[in-house]
């Protein structure tokens, strides 16, 4: 006997005892699990209590006809495949059953081999349908946090981290390339903490000349330096009881680094030119697009300060590593701009979406935002087309594969998603040197799924192993 195949449970509904017993034995010998019902009513009850992968149902039964039972199945579990079994001579009813959603039919007495082939085919088709459905659901899942939206597993992880640490009062270091949403994360941290009633205070450290940054952060006493005509409160004091966001932290000079270290360690500092030691309860969140670890190794950033800042790191992935976010982000941003400016929300042609998904986005979401803003100005007729993309970027964003106007939108989008999926897999393989374990973990699917997807795209992972 074959090993039981737990992946498939088949329900047989038939009032013919001999047929039930024979078919059950036959299918169980193939390794499937089989449940039987004597009539449609019993079948309905079983359907409500168990999940089946396939139904074999008689067409002509006592009280409830096979057609009525089929209709019940299609209404309650529309994706569940049904094979109708019909006595000789009722082919026309079998055809009607097919029209009502049956997948196939068999005539009694059944040829065992034919029955097994049809069952196997139906189970495989059902499995494929479910996988496709699951994939579609996965593609439609969106994550959001504050004003951030995403469809990528990586960003989901980021949102989870933000949620976890928001109220924890620890120092957070947000790293990521320019335009990836670092400031948005910093704000989300503040507005999801118990400090949110107080104003969020932000300082862009790179925008303030080196000699003024210290006074900006810690304040100064009157006469502390030329131009200090009166006492001034610094940002640490202003953010007492609240959150202080120090943006571009990689750009601060060594003198300020030391003073920052002290306030992080002891919560204490003096205003520039002052003797009084002040104590504050300020939660510090910092961000940078520079590689602080490398700066630390080169001696440009204090190691002790780095560890103080990096108590809880959050790293934002670049947009090119989450291209699946582009349609969602575009929709979200277009809606936001329209809310601000009025008018109707524009949509993007599939061609524009393809182009966008073929682009590398060095400026990340900020670049996407700018592109959409400019395209909105150019667009006419409620739709943004490739022609509305600014000259400069349409030369970077190749206008992509021309959309065939005869292709239904659904098919076109699924082609795009397929392409994106392939690109994503190739990038993963390159980046992780063909390590399927690691890739599966990052993709949040099991290894089998990764292998299957790769084979669907005729990708051979071993070519990427070094
Ligand atoms: N996940 C997201 N969902 C919606 N909008 C986003 C998302 N991430 C970023 N944005 C938008 O993209 C723009 C850039 O984000 P933000 O200013 O937070 O990035 P940044 O990493 O601080 O950039 P920079 O390094 O240039 O300062 C903002 O207008 C922000 O609203
Ligand atoms: Mg920023």
What does this protein look like?
The protein is an alpha/beta fold and 466 residues long. The protein folds into four domains: 5-139, Response regulator (Rossmann fold); 144-315, Rossmann fold (3-Layer(aba) Sandwich); 319-403, Helicase, Ruva Protein, domain 3, CATH 1.10.8; 418-464. Helix content is 47%, strand content 15%. The protein has helices spanning 17-29, 40-49, 66-76, 91-99, 112-140, 153-165, 182-191, 210-218, 235-238, 254-266, 292-297, 303-309, 326-341, 350-357, 364-378, 391-396, 409-431, 436-443, 447-456, and strands at 5-13, 32-37, 54-58, 82-86, 104-107, 143-145, 148-150, 172-175, 201-204, 219-220, 232-233, 243-247, 268-270, 277-279, 283-288, 312-315, 347-348, 383-384. Strand 1, helix 1 (17-29) and strand 2 form a beta-alpha-beta unit. Helix 13 packs across helix 15 and helix 18 (436-443) crosses helix 19 (447-456). Residues 392-402 have low confidence and may be disordered. Bound molecules: adenosine-5'-triphosphate and magnesium ion. Magnesium ion (MG) binds at residues 182-183, 247.
